[in-house]
Amino acid sequence: MPLIHADDLAVVRGDGIFETLLIRDGKVCNVARHLARMRAGARRMDLPDPDPVTWGRAVEDARATWVDANGDVEGLLRLVYSRGRESDPADVDTPEATTALVMVTDAGPHAARARADGVAVCLLDRGYTVDFAGRAPWQLIGAKTLSYAANMAALRYARAHGFDDVVYTSADGQVLEGPRSTVVAVTGRVLRTPPVEAGILPGTTVAAIFALAHEEGWACKEEPLVPDDLLAADSVWLCSSVTVAARVTRIDDVPMPLREAGADTAAQFADLAMRAVVRA
User: Fold this and answer.
1) Would you say 158 and 122 are in contact if contact means Cβ atoms under 8 Å apart?
2) What is the predicted pLDDT for the residue at 149?
3) DSSP structure class, residue 160
4) What is the 3-state secondary structure (H, E, C) of 127-152?
5) Which CATH architecture fits 112-279?
6) By Cβ atoms counted within 10 A, which residue in 41, 110, 151, 262 is the most buried?
7) Which residues of the chain form beta strands (DSSP E)?
8) Helix axis angle, 31-44 to 52-70, nearest 10°
């Protein structure tokens, strides 16, 4: 029995959703937020509600298998949920017709290197204004779908031009997100990130970071940002599930060195981000 059929709609049309989680220190990080976002994405795509108990059990089985075989090696755990087979005559709106996969691979060296060394990013125009998601809900802007070809093309473009990653901007000049990350600007003990209403994916990692940061006295704001806000910040970070937090070291041709006043808070933010994700 194949794990996935060649005509599965995940394969032939990217018709599904996914989540990626970090296994660190023997536990899966931030599970509840990922499963909640998965349910929200399923509803937006008219997929049957994924059962959190069943998915939670599958996540735990995958975690246990990975840790037994690999010990403390960081793992990348991916959840994939698609509409099922194109050729299946069954009702596509039933759970029985869908495809559900849980897989774990080595997180690899990229995440650790980005945490340690930071990333150089280029700004790329995403081609729509911040009100586009509200005007065109069928475009699924802000949903974590399997249709990631444009994001991967953006990353290839960046690397071909000497950058590690991308920060998207809107057609009207606002900062959006990275292809696989959420943007956070740090100034003093104030954290700022673009609002989801701008048409970005709700970041599970940033949600965890902001929850702990609020407890520890940081000011946390979701508000519109423009590129000049990033250039003026003490530090800028790309936050994601597996890398957790990578400091931006260059934006286009502008270096982003740590100023003396911002070095301490940058170190505090990096520590805060990892603690937030591991405890979540």
Assistant:
1) yes
2) 94
3) H
4) CCCCCHHHHCHHHCCCCCECCCHHHH
5) Alpha-Beta Barrel (3.20)
6) 41
7) 16-24, 27-28, 75-82, 99-106, 119-125, 165-169, 182-187, 190-193, 219-222, 235-240, 244-251, 254-255
8) 130
Per DSSP bridges, beta strands 119-125 and 244-251 are parallel
Q: Is 241 helix (H, G, I), strand (E, B) or coil?
A: coil
- Sheet containing strand 99-106, edge to edge, reads 27-28, 16-24, 75-82, 99-106
- Bridge partners, residue 125, by sequence: 169
Tokens describing residue 146:
């399997």
CATH T-level assignment (fold) for domain 9-107: D-amino Acid Aminotransferase; Chain A, domain 1 (3.30.470)
Q: Is 24's pLDDT higher than 90?
A: yes
Opening angle at CA 97, ends 140 and 45, nearest 5: 10
pLDDT digits (tens, 9 = 90+) for 187-222: 999 999 999 999 999 999 999 999 999 999 999 999
For tokens 């194949």, the residue is: 2
Structure tokens at 71: 């010990």
Task: Quote the pTM value.
Answer: 0.93
What's residue 89's pLDDT? Answer: 58
> What is the token pair recorded at 65?
């298998």
> Cα(22)–Cα(145) distance, rounded to whole angstroms?
19
Ramachandran class of 46: left when φ > 0, alpha when ψ lies in -120 to 50, beta otherwise: left
36: three-class secondary structure by DSSP: helix
Closest-CA residue to 177 (of 260, 242, 236, 135): 236
pLDDT in tens, 107-145: 999 999 999 999 999 999 999 999 998 899 889 889 999
Please report the sign of the dihedral spanned by the C-alpha atoms of residue 182, residue 246, residue 18, residue 23.
Answer: negative
